[in-house]
Structure formats: C-alpha cells, structure tokens
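Morning. Coffee machine broken again, so started the prediction first thing and wrote up yesterday's gels while waiting. Chain of 117 residues, entered below exactly as on the submission form.
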Amino acid sequence: MAQDPLNEQIAALSTMLASLDDRLARAHTPPEGLEDLKGAVDTLRTHVWAILSASRSSSYKPFVERFRLRRALDGLRTIVADIDSGVSTTLHPEHTDLQMLAMQLAERIGRLKRPPG
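Came back before lunch.
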C-alpha cells in the first residue's frame, strides 16, 4: 500500500533536518540563509504544536485559526511597542509592506461574518 504523500514529506523533512543539523554542528561559520531557515523552522514548530494540540479538540479548524491569530497579534503588539518606545526608529521596506497588508487585512476582516448567537 502506498504511503500518504504528506507522511512521505514529513519523513523526508525529518531526515533532511537531521542531516542539516549534523552539518551545521561541523560548520565553522553560519552559512548564508541560516536566519531565514531559523524563522521557517520556528514557524513550522509552532504550527505543528498547534495542530497537535488542536487534534485533541473537537473544534480543530477554529482552534488552529485562533492560534494563528494570537501569534500574529503577539508579533504586531511587539512591533507597535518597539515603535512607541523608540526601539525602532528606522523605516524599513518591510514596514511599508506591513502597512499595505494591514490595510488589506482590515478590509477583509470587515467582510467576515459574526458567528450566530
């Protein structure tokens, strides 16, 4: 019987990460792109945790959605606090991207329907 493609990807990724971890342990300097990899692995780890936690819940999809929203809120609150406190004083291109996305998000949120009750 053929294995589920998602299971195959998970197994392959686990093998790749173990190999990468071994090579990084022997590296003399951090390779280019390591920060991006760290962010991707952190995000994946958190999403996996949320999915595993949600799998124990009868409301799986809403649990994962709310978890992702709370993560986004935490990040946005940190950005606001950094700007308000003066920690962030330079306008980066990502600020402009975030501002445009925030406007799009506000419009999309306005389209959502409230749950009955």
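The longest helix spans residues 60-85. Going to sketch it on the whiteboard this afternoon.
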